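Q:
Got a chain?
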Amino acid sequence: MKEGILIVSYTFPPNPAIGGKRWYKFAQEFFNKGFDVHVISSEKSNVHFAKNDSDIQNFKMYYLKDNYPDWFFQRQENLLQRIRYKLFQYYLLIKSKGTIFDKSLFLQHEAQHIVRQVIIKNNIQLVIVTSPPFYLSSFVSQLKREIDFKLICDLRDPWTWGESYGYKNLSTQRLSHDKNLEQNVVFNCDYIISPSHSIVHHLKNFYPAHQNKIFHIPHGVDNSIVSRSARKNDKLKTGLKFIYAGTLYAEYDKFLEILCKSVRGFSKERLEQFSFDIYALNSNDQYKQIVDKWMLNEKICFHEPISEKQLIEKFNEYDGSIIFFPTKYKNFLSTKFIELIALRIPIVYVGEHGDVATFLESKKLGFHLELNELETELEQTISCIMDNYNVNFDISDFHFSALTDKILEMSKRDMNHDF
């Protein structure tokens, strides 16, 4: 009988939300290594996405009935929507003792029931739960009091010390409630992993007695996909064709305004060569208006999102990628960076200096510009995008296969030994 692994992830393919991508890739690797893979996800993942090519047939899937409305995280366009928002906000303030912006808020009973059943019925020894949403980790960790299993909690974002999910403006009383949940997760789980060095650093400093079970497991890259598309040294160009694919974060309008102003100041020759294609996962109408205002709609073009495989192939048509991150993500080397590096595509990172900038510049994989440098420095930066680029950077440590081996080795170790 195969050894079983249970992954609890609020989003999971075919839903293209970025939160599920990390553990879909790990699930594939667990399956390839001979494990029986079980996955619990929100029912919102169990829908058809025409542009998603993820295959989940190898996994045993279970779905949670999710009553948290997606519209609560969207812009309220009219009076009726704003009234609905206020009423639901009031309801959430009654239901939750902590943040009201945790999508797993209503899932405690059902999540614990399904996790308990799957563990017992399939003799699961290893459970991995990924957050956000953070309450999901709390619900699963509580089961450690009644069932014997090894639990790994994956924190992709900062929890109570972060600015997102309502924590920036949370009252002292509500913050204290969620800090207790966070503490209980740290105490109850066997290991905590994170793709962010800054999260690992914070947790080790804040919970020094638990340092020996907190580890960095970065975002990875699927070597089977990259190997089909990774360009050879002789294919590297020196042109000015750029791409970005992913979420358009807060303040992207500010970035785009400065970018347009900078491009309008390019020399005639440079302007003729330059193009920037944006494959946005979220609405882009407001951003198109900015580009139209600067009459650059032939140079900066928005496109509908495409599948991962199509995107990997398309990356090779470009000379570089321009990525803007708001300040709160300055220390998060996300999947998009790892994939671009694996494909040997130089990166221009725009944002505040942090772990991302340090990594790219120290490894000679790209350039960093502060937002206030974008207008004056962009033309010079992209003109030398290939100068000293490290085409020989070893990406093997980021392969999902290697990272999966690291997780399995961790799960089999005694916590009193160094990993």
